[in-house]
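Now for a chain:

_____
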Amino acid sequence: MSFTEGLSGLHAASENLSVLGKNIANAATVGYKSSSIDFTNVLASHLNSANSGSGLQTGGAVLASNITQSFSQGAIMSNNTPLNAAINGQGMFVTYDPTLDQTSYTRNGQFIENTDGYLVNASGFQVMDINSTPINLSTYQIHPLSVQTKQVDVAAFTAPLSPYGTITFGGLVYTNTDGKTIGTAMAPSIVPSTIGTPSTRETDDVTFAHGMSAGDAITVAGLTFKANKDLTSTQIARAFANLSAGATTGPRTADGSYSGQLSSNFSSSAVYSAAGINGGSGDIVFFTATSMGAQPAITASALQGGVATIFAGLLAGDTAETIAARSAVSVANGGPANYALSSGIFTGKLGNFDTISVAGSTATSPSLLTTGTLGTSGPTTQIETLILSALSAGDTYAAGGLTFTATSNVTAAQLATAFNNKINTATSISSYGTWGGTKTAGTGGSGLGTSVMNGTDAINWSYAGDGIVSTRLISGVKTVSGVLGSSTTNTAISIAGTNAATTAAAQIEALTFSALSAGDTYSAGGLTFTATSNVTAAQLAADFYNKINTASSASIYGTWSGTKTAGTGGSGLGTAVMSGTDTVNWSYSGPGVVNARLISGLKTTSGAPSTYLGSKLTTEQLANISAVIVNHKNYGPENAIDINSYGFTSGSHSFVQTTTLGTDFAYLNTKAIDATGTIIGTYSDNSTYELGQIGIALIPSNVGLKALGNDSWVETAKSGVPLIAAANTLGRGTIVGSSVEASNVNQTTDMVGLLAAQQAYQASAQVVKIESQNYQTLIGMNG
């Protein structure tokens, strides 16, 4: 048997040498886990068992029963490879072989990005994230949140340009040569002085209190007038005087040009001095509605010319020649000439940016919600307004039981007078025709009473007494002689009949706000708000609501000046309530009919902030400010444009601020892995972004894994199902970036074991040799 034991020992020693040799050979292999071999002997026979009854056994051959790997952690070694990673603690990296559709596990964190952008190991297996999805870095070469934007600057001029002054604007030079100051314009204010009702026409008082410079433009109710010379407030008012509804031009074409169209709902009056109307300054033009009843609010706005207009509407690279050529094309197409060319000369060349003007102001009249009333002490009689129309000889007109047949042509005014006379005097006759029928009789709302004239072509006709009218009686029917059919005109109720006293009520008007930029102002009802930061319409409405109701209220978005218009009844303003997010319903201070409305709003857009380099601009500077927006052509940050003034330019001070810094795409520069396994990209603009997160699998039993080779293992029934999650969770270790885990081989121990294994191998070989000699001897003896 010794020969067999020797051979088994020789084989076992060889296996041990192989395991130890593999350990020593992989001592420098990243993530390698050392192995050890277990031995057991094979029992050969029982000696003297029959006689002694004991279980004495003798050993037989040796067997290498198991090779076991140690999953103890190796030392963590740092390096300069950003996508290398080591696990400090429990867990394994998860990799996926797309060729074999196989998931494996490893401690070797030598990862790189392949040509397709996937994070892979040396075998090309894809590294999985915490959601078991392959990590692909190719989509992050440009920061996902980065955009290309072009820089926007605001160039503001805080005073007019003096005669013969010169300004250099981003390389383009303009010299004011005509000896006149170039200034600014303001929008006229709008106050509805007569409320439109079914029996009255609305009248809006438009007050012009400021002059305008050549190039300035003012718009009222849709019609725009752009001055070609400096004009006083009176001259501006004359430009909007005596206009017919829907007008597309006006009386002052020598002073400027018209564009747009006046609202078809309004016509305008002559010019009146504000001092003679309301004791104010400036000049007033009355805009009167063409029909009775409430009308859509009209608005007015001003586009500031001034210094800003000189440099508005320019294109990158403009020169005097290109500016003049565009002006000529505009004139040829029926548009205005560039007024700056008539006031001065351009030299030089504009930089790589375009410009637009943003300065101006807008007036807004409120919408009438509730008409103020004084109330009544008892029931009221209903009154309706009937508007008459002209008749030709032979035509008839019937209303309220009366029928008029024209014997000659009759104007609307003549017919209205004839009806008024007949209603009030049953025996009245007319020289224009004959009467038939009688006025509808009855009491209260079942019969008709007297009438009064309303203008020239309408009558206000009362019922016979107080009370609510269930069936109206006054519609007019016009029949044209010789023509089939007739036309009916319904009346408008000017005063509704009531069965009881009415309660006095304060008038309420709704004022809708718009957003402001820093430096803009909004005035209404005696209060003026100056924005120190950008303000939304909702924020502005809320601030006005607070200020109206609490005089001491302050705002984080701007500053207040002025006080709420005081007075009693309709001569002063009261409290307000919010309506939606951007509108306040503002009441007058008491009941009564309001003849002069007080709540029109005026928004002034400066186009520039109210502060510069931390210093607040003065009131004078803000009052004269005009601005132009500079849109740079290239993506990314740019240097703000240079503006310089020379010569006689006292007061034409300027400044430039960047309102939107240009940005460009941010490109991925470096990658790093943090303790949670998150791959963090750093971009060309120094921003960062999380590109992915390496998952860690926690294996229920590491020793149950099956070795796959290349420092990888696969799941088995003995290992249990691995659970993948983020590092440093539920017992998982942390991840160390730019590092790898060294092998856990103990070279000293394995070298000692190697020597012992070598001696065992030699001893087993000697046993085999001796047994071989013994066999030879036995063979010889038999011979």
Summary: The CA atoms of residues 524 and 601 lie 4 Å apart. The chain has a mean pLDDT of 85.
